[in-house]
Each structure stands twice: as C-alpha cells, then as structure tokens.
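Figure 6 in text form: structure in, sequence out.
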C-alpha cells in the first residue's frame, strides 16, 4: 500500500527537535503467524502510547498458511500480487497484505476478508490517492514491508510506518542522493561502513514514515526535510512525532504520528 503519485508540495526544509517526552524506542507486538489472532495490547510498549505496531517475521510464514489467507484479498490486491514476476516479491506483497488484514480485522472486529480498503485525499492535489484507510472504521493505519519483515501500525491519529533492510555498504554511495544534504554529510562522516549504513537507514526510514503519514509519499522530494541520522529515537517535525521502532539486527524502522 505505497502512496500514489500526485503533485509535489512546495519544498520547505524543516528542522526537527527532540522532546524527551517518551524517548524510548517503540517495541512492536510480535505476530505468531497470519492465522493466529493478533494480541491486542493497549499500547505498543515504551513510547507507544498513541500507536500500536505489530511485526511479522515473514520467514516463519509457510505456504499452507499463505494459501489459507489468499481468499481474504480483494480483486485489486489479487491483480497487484499477480503482476510480480519474481515469486519472492509476490510472496512478500501477499504476506504483508494478509498481515494487514489480520491485524485490522482484529482491531475493528471484522473478518479479514470483509475489510474494504480506501484512500484519503492526497494533500498535494486533493485526489483520492493519499494515505490508505479502512472504509467504515474510525482507525488510521500504515503498512510497511521489506524482505524478511512486515510492520503494521494502527493509531487514532494520522500515522506512517516504514521498515528497511540494511543496504550493502558498497551500494551506499548510489543511495545517498535521496537524503537531505545534512544527512548525507552525517553519513559520510561515519568512520566505519557499518555505522554509515545504520545512519543512512535511520534517516531514510524516518523520512519515509513521515512522508507516508502526511500522505504525499514521494510526491514530496525526500531531500527536503531533515530527520537526522543520530541514534536519538524521537524527534518532532511540524507537529509530527517521529520515533524509531525496535526491529531485528539488519533492519531499521520508524513511525510517525500526528494528532488530529
């Protein structure tokens, strides 16, 4: 459920501030599988008072389990899944969307197959291809996946979540162009390749979570906003609270929320 295309909003650099209000990394709720009822906690652990996040290790999902979940998909999801030529990409998409349906179904007390997805209006052009939404339910959610891991975030507020696998250090020079210039400088100042990768992934997941929450996605130049590379798990940016999410080694993740 990536963001749709749209008009680019006006570029304006925003500098975040750390608040110290609840600076702990958010702990996701672990899903045991696609078919098990997700645990419904009141919060998502330290720092997660206004958002709940569920994580799923996709390597634990077997073929039989995914086969039982596929009937939940609507025609659009079925078409999108079938469009992937590579089997691993198709399976990653299916597992992510099945997990989203399982979690949202539990949160809204619906059967996973009964959920109808929709879109909020895009803040850039006003067309209905902004943040995903659940039709007929007063809940906000965001979905992110990367090979090996799925995150589903649910909140009463606007929310965006992102997760990324660490890139190969050799690929980093070709990726830095998507970051704010100050973030690029911070990554390049890292003394070890592993630290450079961690810094890059922090900045990118924070930016992606923020832009997904806003609903503009990459319709806004990701170079515009500075979210930082430091290991400080919380920052505020134009009313948004952007926090890091605890994920296994080799991954980085962040979530952004905004009060209504």
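Output sequence:
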């Amino acid at each position: 459920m990536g963001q749709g295309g749209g008009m680019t909003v006006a570029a304006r650099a925003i500098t975040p501030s750390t608040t110290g209000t609840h600076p702990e990394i958010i702990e996701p709720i672990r899903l045991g599988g696609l078919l098990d009822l997700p645990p419904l906690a009141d919060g998502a652990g330290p720092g997660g008072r206004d958002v709940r996040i569920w994580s799923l290790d996709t390597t634990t999902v077997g073929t039989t389990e995914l086969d039982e979940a596929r009937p939940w998909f609507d025609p659009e999801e079925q078409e999108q899944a079938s469009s992937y030529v590579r089997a691993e990409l198709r399976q990653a998409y299916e597992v992510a969307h099945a997990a989203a349906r399982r979690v949202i179904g539990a949160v809204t007390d619906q059967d996973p197959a009964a959920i109808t997805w929709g879109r909020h209006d895009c803040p850039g052009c006003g067309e209905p291809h902004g943040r995903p939404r659940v039709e007929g339910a007063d809940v906000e959610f965001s979905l992110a996946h990367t090979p090996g891991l799925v995150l589903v975030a649910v909140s009463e507020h606007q929310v965006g979540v992102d997760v990324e696998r660490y890139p190969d250090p050799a690929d980093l020079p070709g990726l830095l162009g998507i970051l704010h210039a100050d973030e690029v400088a911070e990554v390049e100042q890292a003394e070890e390749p592993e630290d450079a990768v961690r810094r890059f992934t922090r900045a990118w997941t924070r930016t992606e979570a923020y832009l997904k929450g806003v609903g503009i996605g990459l319709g806004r130049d990701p170079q515009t906003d500075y979210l930082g590379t430091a290991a400080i798990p919380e920052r505020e940016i134009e009313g948004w609270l952007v926090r890091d999410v605890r994920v296994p080694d080799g991954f980085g993740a962040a979530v952004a929320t905004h009060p209504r």
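Caption detail: The domain at 29-258 is CATH 3.90.470.20 (Ribosomal Protein L22; Chain A).
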